[in-house]
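We close this part of the discussion by returning to an individual protein. In the encoding step, the backbone of a single protein was reduced to a row of integers, each denoting a local shape. The sequence in question and its structure tokens are set out directly beneath this paragraph.
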Amino acid sequence: MMDVKTAIETGDAAALRRLLAEDPARANAPIRWGSPECASHPLHFICDVVFHGTLPGEDSQRLLAEALIEAGADVDHANGDPLNAAASLAATEVAFALLDAGARLDLRGGFGETALHWAALLGNDRLVRRLIEQRAPLDVTDSRYNATPLGWALHGWHEPAPGNVGRHHAVVVALVKAGATIKPEWLTSEPVRARPAMLAALRGEPAD
């Protein structure tokens, strides 16, 4: 039987639209999944499926997100969870759909991080540039590591995280050129000294 969870898992945006037309409240109804079971907002659940690499079709994530948004899904649910989920789970097209719909850029996740922190960590230069263009806060620090998005970018470059996009040089350059603060200690840190490209990026120099 088709339900919102199955429609998302199979990338069936048409079926999702039919389900939402029948009951728009489904756009914000938690989806229960996994073992141990967890509950995710439908917009977050799309990102989970993207992250696990099981969503069929490259355009499916945006079509599914747009269907939910048009039906009234809360793009700022739980203090910005959908955008943070999209950034942290490398669901770039979901993030773009959320930004097009006016999702707030300043809302923070569970330990004070923003979507820009996550996009920088994963080296997602496309999303970082879009967030910068829309004036995401550059020097806000999270509450766990006391680090800015630029700090997260350097960490993700040195120690790639799950979902890594790998465009950290471009991310660092974009953040620096946008005015992100460079801490002096970064310039002499072991990761930067071990990688001349990091120092070049911190100077705003593009990759060769």
